[in-house]
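Complex record, two chains
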Amino acid sequence: MEATNFLISGVGGQGVILASEVIATVGLAAGYDVKKSEIRGVAQRSGSVAGHVRWGQEVQSPIVPEGCADYLVALEILEGLRWLDEIGPEGTIIINEQEIPPVSMAGEAINYPDPGMVKKALQTAAERVFRVPALEMAQQLGNPRVLNVILLGVLSASLSVAPRVWEDVLRDRLPSRVLDLNLKAFGRGRAWLEETRHR
Amino acid sequence: MRVLLSGNEAIARGAYEYGVKVVTGYPGTPSTEVVENTARYEEIYSEWSANEKVALDVAIGAAYTGRRAMAVMKMSGLNVAADSLFYVPYTGVNGGALLIVVADDPGQFSSQTEQDSRRYAHFAKLPMIEPSDSQEAKDFVGMGLDLSEKWDTPVLLRTVMRISHCASVVELGEREFDDTIPTGPFRHDHSKLICTSPRSRARHPVVEARLEKLIEVSNQFPSNRLEWGDLRIGIVASGPVYRYAREVFPDASFLKLSLTYPLPAALVREFAAEVEELLVIEELDPFLEEQIRLIGVDCQGKSIFPRWGELTPGVIKHAAAEAGILQEKAIAPRRHVVPEGLPTRSPTFCPGCPHRSTFYALSRLKNLVVAGDIGCYNLASLPPFDIVDTAGAMGSSVGVAHGFDVAGLPESRVAVIGDSTLFHTGIPPILNMIHNGGSSTVIVLDNHTTAMTGHQDHPGVGVRLGGERATKVDIEHMVQGWGLGHVRRADAFDVKEVENAIREALSFDGPAVVIVDGPCVFVGPGVTRTYDVDTETCIACGRCHRLGCPAIVHSDEVNTKTGRHKTRIDPVLCAGCEMCAQVCPQQAIHPADTVE
C-alpha cells in the first residue's frame, strides 16, 4: 500500500502541532506505520507552521514527498495557498475560511491574496476543496481555539477510520476541562462535511 | 506497548529504560525536549545547566561516580562544551557511562550555522552513533551507554532536526536498573582523572589504541548492516538520510551505518567489492566519504549531492537525476499552482512581549550600532525595527560591542542580551569590558525565562526544572557588585522609562548596564484587559504600527485627508501590555471597556 500523506499548515499558535499529533496518533491506533515531521521554534511567534504526517504499511521518510500530499488541512487561507504545489493529483483540500494578515511592517499595506485569486488557486490545485467556516463554527461553540479540531472532524469524515478512534485519541491527548468542547467541535466538523455533501 | 514518540522523547525514554541517573543540558532547538522529557521521570535527576560546558562537566562528574549520565545540547552548544569534550576521552568515565547528545540542524531551521557536529567525533576522538528514527533513538541510548561503559569512553549520540522533531513508532520497555543501589564511594585514579601534563601525555596513546579497537566494534555493530538489493548501485547512508535514500532507491543495495565513527572499514570494503557504483549520501560535510576514500575505496558523494541544506528525498531525487543515476522520467514534473507574490509571514514579537519597548526606543535613537545576541530579541533584526546590526553566538554581543569601542568606532555602542544568555556566556565579556576600561552600554533584556526555546528556567528564575524553588540570582545586585558606575533598572512595560534609561546610559562616560525588566507574556501574570482604538481620535499617523505588534491592524476607516487607514486592535490577539496606548500621540488608545 502506498502511504497516505497529510500536510497541516497554519499560523504559529493556531494549533497546527496538536492537529498533526492527533492525525499521527489516529494512524497508529488504526494499525498503520506512522511518521510525523514538524517545524518548531517559531510556533508561538506568529510565523508559518507546517506539519507532515504519513500513514502506511511501512513508512521510511517523515517528509511528505514533493507533490504527493493526499490531504492538505490548512488552518488559514494564506498558509493554505503556500502549500498548493505539494498536493497530489487526487488530493483533497480542507481549508479554514480565515484570513490572518501577516504583521504589517511600519503600517504599510499587506497585499493579502484577494478572494478571486484564492478561489482560482484552490480550484486549480485540487478537485475536492472544502472551504470550512471553522473560526465562525468555533466561536459559536464558545472558543475560537477549537477550530483545528473542527477541521479534524471534517478530515475524519473523508477517511475510513472510525470516528470512535479519533475521539479516543482526543480523549487521551486533551486535558479533561476542554475535552467536551473539543469532542463537540470534532462532531461539528464531521456533521459539516455530511451537510455539505448532501447540499 | 507501541507508541508514537518524537526522537527527543525517545532519547529521554531511552535514558529512563537504560538506567541513566543524571541528565544535564542547556535548551537549544532542536535538542530541548530531551531534557524536558527526562525531567518527567523521578528516577532521573535532570537539570538545566547555566550553559553547555557546565552541563557536560556535571555529566562527566556524575559518570566519574560510576553512574550513567547524559549531557544534551544543540550543535552550537557543543562548541561551548568543546573544551570539556576534548578532555573526557583522555580521562575515560571511571566506571560510569557518559552519552553526549548533540542535535544538528541541517537546513538551519533555528540555528546560526549549518555546522556538522560529526566532525567532533573525529576531532575529539570518541565513538559516535546516529539513529535514523525514534525506535533507534531509544535503542541507541542503551547501546551507546554500553559502549561507554565497556570501552571507558564518552560516546556521542548525534541527531538532526528530522530525528529530534519527527515522530515514529517506538516499542516501550521497562527501566533496567536497580535504583536502590547507592552511589560511590569515589574511585580515585590520578593517572587517568588528572588530565594535565605530564599525566595526560600517557593517556593519548590509550585514546588512539581505543579508537583502533573500536573499528572492529564498528564492523560488528548490529545496526551497521548490509542490505543487499540490486548490485548496480550501492548506497552508504546513516541517520534520516538512510530513510530518505531508501525511499528514492527502493531496490538498491545499502550499507546502513549507525556507529559512524570510527568507520567500519571491513564492512565498507566488503560492500564496495560487491556493488558496481558506490554512492555516499550524507547531509552537510563529506564526513563518511572522506573516511571511505582514506581507506582506499573509491566512491561518489559530494560530486553529486549538495553540501548544504537538508538532503530530503526530493533533493536526493533531483541531484541523482541530474547525475544520470535516476531516470529523469521517474520524476513527476512539479506543479506550479501557488499564486505568485504571496506575502511572507515572518516571526515577530508576540503581543505583550516585553522586548518591544527596548527596540522601539532604540529605533528612535541616531548614531547607534547595536550588537545583538541569541534569543527572541534577535527578531529586532527584522522589520519593523530592523535595528540589530550583528548576531553570532551566545554571549557574543558584549564582546563585539567592546571591540567596536576599542577600535575607535565613532557611533554609540549598545549590546542587547537576554537574561538566560547573560548567565550562559554573557558575564565574562561584561567583566572584560569593565576591566579593560570600555564604555559601551549593555541592555539586559530580563524577561524572567529562557523564552526562545519554550520557557526554561535559569539561575535568575528562582524555580528549577522539577518545579522546586531555587535561590533567585538578582541580576541588578549581581551587576552592582561588579562596581560599574552606572546600573539602572527600567520597567519594560513603561516605554518612556525604558527610553530614558537607555538615553541616560548612553550619555554616561564609562561602561553602563540597563536592565529592562518585564516577564515574557507566556510566564507573566496573564492578560487582564485588552485595548481598543477610538477611531474618532485616531489620525492614522502609524506610530503604533512601529511597535510591530500582531494585534495592531488596519481598520476599514480611513483618514480622509491622508487616505491612510486608521488603526484597529484585534481583541483576540491583544495582550493588554499598553505600549501602543503609551506611544499614541493622540491618546486614542484606551482599555477596551472604556471605549464606546
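Note: Chain B touches chain A through 58 residues (CB under 8 Å).
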